[in-house]
Design goal:
Order of helices and strands: HEEEEEEH
Number of strands: 6
Mean pLDDT: 82
Distance between the termini: 22 Å
Structural class: alpha+beta
Oligomer: single chain
Strand order of the largest sheet: 1-2-3-6-5-4
CATH class: Mainly Beta
Largest sheet: 6 strands, antiparallel, barrel
Low-confidence stretches: 1-13
Number of helices: 2
CATH topology: Thrombin, subunit H
Strand content: over 45%
CATH architecture: Beta Barrel
Length: about 120
Amino acid sequence: MNSLYRSKPSSTYPYLCKRRFDRYLVDKPVSVIREWPDAETVTIPGQCHVLGEGGLGAMMTQELRVGEVVWLQLSAGLKVYGAVRNQKGFVYGFEFVLVRDNQRDAIRRMVHNYLNG
């Protein structure tokens, strides 16, 4: 990780273009849950390093496909759908999709709580 980011652990993650939601550097576990018809459910552990109201970035322990829609287990009581939007090695960008209002509120609280202690 670039030293610029290490010195500002709760700073806004910089992007070249304006994003709909700010994203913040975090360090928290996340799991991807694959539930496919006629297949065993698979849980893939990972580590979230960027979080915002619209998505997250995480390093995962297994390969995923860009475009794949999975469950993202953000905490014990919060699971939302996420679409894999980009990949570089085992680092993935996920966009939250089909998010209900109560889930969006929980994500917003999670971001706020993480930033404030």
